[in-house]
Specification:
49% helix, 397 residues, 16 helices, six-stranded mixed sheet, four-stranded parallel sheet, Rossmann fold, Arc Repressor Mutant, subunit A, alpha/beta
């Protein structure tokens, strides 16, 4: 009796395991981008599954083995050939690449970073620091790199600035920096803010500046289009970067795959996930404002923004008339001193929300806002999210 019962239990357990969706993830673990996406997929699978996940560390290069049996695939698809190979398996697929493929591959649902939003964010980062000259480094033949660069240049153009461009591959060797990169950097008007498509190119630009005798960030400020904390913090100086919402991309891709496996409808256009924000490190830590009074006022705000300061406090620290201060801010930054205080506080709050588990009232106090309610009101008005929703989005939850 007991043995028969044990046998039925064992068969039930095997049946339950067999019923779990079997999902293969073809995303490389060699980059912070890939690991973030896999983390988001895993979080969804544990919360809504469970799924039986098979992660191929080498990503799409592994493809699917002969005789593979599964229920779905999440992959970074970079070529139509790779896509065709996966499509032959006849299972639902979700693509997490920014590359827009053609042919049958164009019909594969796609979740990816909003690269245009990243380019615009980068332009604002440099403009807020007073830069007037700009450069872009990236492999221009790729459509998504062009989209990134064009969004960057578009906002700069609206502010009366131009952007010089250098084509450079995704993985320049630091031990053999191209002479063209050194020559290009030397010829750029200084000081200059340079955006790169990825952190590999960003590290190459920093190394090339050292070889060229250029100071970072005083002569050349460098911002990477994606963040990998391990690699960006290995630089000297450390490399600023755009924080791509990789975990959110992975979670959203997993959600779409689940809908496909259940036979439900999904969006017919790519799902674009906006970046979280800028991780500001030493490579862009410069304020290039020519007006001494404005520079002093900005320094005072950055130093004291977490305190209950107002414009009158700035005027006590900076010997200037209120009307002149307001005019300098509007002419150089397009906003008022009070707007700048709120902006610096909001950036501090967003950083704390994304990187700590502090309760919302503590985040509000630590960033200079009086209450959590006021912080929530301001965030809803400016970015359309409550603090809790922003924290969840920043962490891919």
């Amino acid at each position: 009796m007991g043995r028969g019962s044990d046998g039925r239990d064992e068969r039930a357990r095997k049946g339950a395991v067999a019923s779990f969706p079997r999902v293969t993830v073809l995303v490389s673990t060699a980059t912070g981008w890939g690991r973030g996406i896999i983390k988001g997929i895993s979080a969804f699978a544990h919360q809504h599954g469970p799924w039986l996940l098979q992660v191929e560390p080498e990503g799409e290069r592994c493809l699917l083995p002969s005789g593979w049996r599964g229920d779905g695939v999440i992959a970074r698809l970079s070529t139509p050939k790779t896509a065709e190979s996966l499509l032959r398996a006849g299972v639902p697929i979700v693509n997490v690449s920014s590359i827009a493929l053609t042919g049958r591959a164009a019909g594969v649902p796609r979740v990816c970073s909003d690269v245009a939003a990243g380019g615009t964010l980068a332009a604002r980062h440099f403009l807020d620091r007073g830069f007037k000259h700009f450069g872009y480094v990236g492999l221009q033949k790729m459509s998504y790199v062009r989209e990134h660069r064009e969004a960057f240049a578009k906002l700069l153009g609206e502010k009366g600035c131009s952007c010089q461009v250098l084509a450079l591959g995704d993985r320049p060797e630091v031990a053999d920096i191209p002479a063209a990169l050194i020559d290009w950097l030397q010829k750029l008007p200084k000081p200059v803010g340079v955006l790169t498509w990825n952190n590999s190119q960003g590290r190459a630009v920093i190394h090339a500046c050292r070889l060229a005798g250029l100071l970072v960030p005083e002569d050349v400020a460098v911002l990477s289009g994606n963040d990998d904390p391990l690699l960006c913090e290995c630089c000297l100086p450390q490399l600023s970067a755009i924080a791509v919402a990789t975990e959110k991309i992975g979670e959203t891709a997993a959600e779409l795959l689940e809908r496909l496996m259940q036979g439900k409808s999904i969006p017919s256009t790519p799902v674009l996930v906006p970046p979280i924000g800028i991780i500001a490190r030493q490579s862009t830590d410069a304020l290039l404002i020519q007006n001494p009074a404005l520079l002093q006022a900005l320094g005072f705000i950055r130093e004291h923004a977490t305190e209950p300061i107002q414009v009158d406090d700035i005027l006590r620290a900076v010997p200037i008339a209120r009307r002149s201060l307001e005019r300098f801010f509007q002419e150089s930054l397009g906003r008022s001193p009070a707007d700048e205080i709120r902006r610096v506080r909001l950036e501090r709050a967003k950083h704390l929300l994304a990187t700590t588990d502090l309760p919302i009232p503590k985040v509000a106090q630590a960033s200079g806002f009086g209450t959590g309610e006021y912080l929530a009101t301001l965030m809803r008005r400016t970015i359309g999210m409550t603090p809790l929703k922003y924290r969840a989005a920043a962490r891919g939850h």
